[in-house]
Amino acid sequence: MISHTLTPGHLDLNTLRKINDSAVNLSLKSSAEAQIAASAQTVQNVINEHRTVYGINTGFGLLANTKIADSELELLQRSIVLSHAAGIGEYMDDSTVRLMITLKVNSLSRGYSGIRLQVIQFFMQLLKSEVYPCVPKKGSVGASGDLAPLAHMCLVLLGEGQMRYQGEVISASQGLKIAALEPLTLAAKEGLALLNGTQASTAFALQGLFRAENLYTQSCVIGAISIEAAKGSRAPFDARIHDIRGQRGQIDTARVFRELLSEHSEISQSHVNCEKVQDPYCLRCQPQVLGACLTQIRQAAEVLLCESNGVTDNPLVFADVGDIISGGNFHAEPVAMAADNLAIAIAEIGALAERRIALLIDSNLSTLPPFLVENGGVNSGFMIAQVTAAALASENKSLAHPASVDSLPTSANQEDHVSMATFAARRLNEMANNTQGVLAIEWLASAQGLEFRAPLKASEQVEKAKALLRKHVSYYDKDRYFAPDIESANMLLAQGVLCGFVIDNPLPSAH
Fold first, then answer.
1. Model confidence band, residue 448 (pLDDT cutoffs 50, 70, 90)
2. Under CATH, which number does the domain 205-312+329-407+419-495 receive?
3. Of 54, 475, 476, 481, which residue is the catalytic one?
4. 144 dihedral zone (left: phi>0; alpha: psi -120 to 50; beta)
5. PTM 2,3-didehydroalanine (Ser): at which residues (predicted)?
6. What is the three-class DSSP state of 217?
């Protein structure tokens, strides 16, 4: 478990990545308490003065013009949580819920939501106790906030719903007992403040971002292995080429490849005077393609970091002047578009890797034995492994279709344009799994290709990457049950074992 003292609005990507990977003991900087209290008091003033303000003493959505009596305000907040907990499907992973709670605490602690400190502290105690609400993955269109997911997250405040502790699903009452908590009665506006917001979409998108970062880094390493295995040229990575174009992602990616490949190796020296003029794009254009992916990752990171620190519920309370203003910060269009861009990057990383596999198994292009195996004909080698990679890459092409361009009106046309951000972000995990599978197969294929270049050696970093794989998967000397090899490589990539090979890391969450 990590410990973090939260200054509201100042989370960074590195901290968010750590919270995604590990349980967290979150505490709040004491200086935030005054703003939180002032915001809650501003809401109470509305009730004391018998004013009518949306979200405090009115209905919601199309029922905004319905005035609610003071005696029913607590029931109103309870009712909105219960009625909006209408999600469906498998439960989110604990890591997703942990991020979602962290983001909600960060947003509420800014002091613009009219919510009491004890509600915020309730969620921090859940995090500390590692007891997480069970939240279905499906049921949000990413506008008016992630209403259904956040309602499921907040059910436990009322002692309702289910929770998960150490992998076991338990009742909310059992979970609260473990966390030494009692159910709360929500005050005016608190239910709406908890349900409005983009925290589910953003949590999914952040996880997609972190996976995209890992895929980018590990694809650079594996791509470098393929260059050596295919006797590719180092000339396309010359800094001068990339500097005069000026694309930052491309420049940084070329530098990564130069570091991985070094100036030369025994393999590269062996074909200095070869007749081949140019390599295929999948080798030669890696800085251009992966650099473009890096640019998308960086842009998405900028948007998601901003969203992680933003206030996205409604209405918003400006306690310093006593104003409560209804707006639309809950609309998750920025998250949806960032997720769509990440989807494109993830798909392209996999598409390029699949083409490198196809090159390696084609003896006309790679000058390696057909399908990377001795005694071809009797042995099929990597023939169908490449087919699997093609299937995964092709599947990602469909999944990469932008979700943000879709919209289906809800709430009797009051919420007439929605972002679909939750799906846009949620599908990134499946896409990342597909691309990771392609990279696993390429890692096996490129390492196999290097074996045929022996006794010549590749660059030091490339040899280390091959040796790391060989600790778990032996040389493919003849046909054997192939799936376990792919699974071993896949599990290693899931652990991010090649990420450390990139020393001067260009990724946003590394800093």
1. very high
2. 1.20.200.10
3. 54
4. left
5. 144
6. helix
This prediction has a pTM of: 0.96
- The radius of gyration computed from the CA coordinates of the chain, to the nearest angstrom, equals 26
Q: Which sign, positive or negative, has the C-alpha torsion 20, 500, 425, 192?
A: positive
Question: Which residue, among 125, 100, 74, has the nearest Cα to 16 in the 3D structure?
Answer: 100
For residue 246, with 0-12 CB atoms within 10 Å meaning exposed, 13-18 middle and 19 or more buried, which class applies? exposed
- What are the angstrom distances between the C-alpha of 129 and each of 30, 70, 118, 462? 21, 35, 16, 43
Q: Is the pLDDT of residue 179 over 90?
A: yes
Q: pLDDT of 113-160, one tens digit each?
A: 999 999 999 999 999 999 999 999 999 998 888 999 999 999 999 999
Place of tokens 């400006």: 318
Residues of the chain with CATH 1.10.275.10: 2-196
Whether the upstream peptide bond of residue 183 has omega within 30° of 0, thus cis, is no
Evaluate whether 118 touches 188 at the Cβ level (below 8 Å). no
> Quick one: which H or E segment has residue 186?
none
**pLDDT tens, position by position, 64-106:** 777 888 888 889 899 999 999 999 999 999 999 999 999 999 9
Whose structure tokens read 């196809």? 358
Residues in the chain: 511
CATH assignment, 2-196: 1.10.275.10
Share of the chain above pLDDT 70, in %: 98
Instruction: Locate 19 and state its tokens.
Output: 């919270």
CA angle 139/349/227 to nearest 5° reads: 160
The ranges of the chain annotated as CATH 1.20.200.10 are 205-312+329-407+419-495
Q: HEC states along 169-182?
A: EEEHHHHHHHCCCC
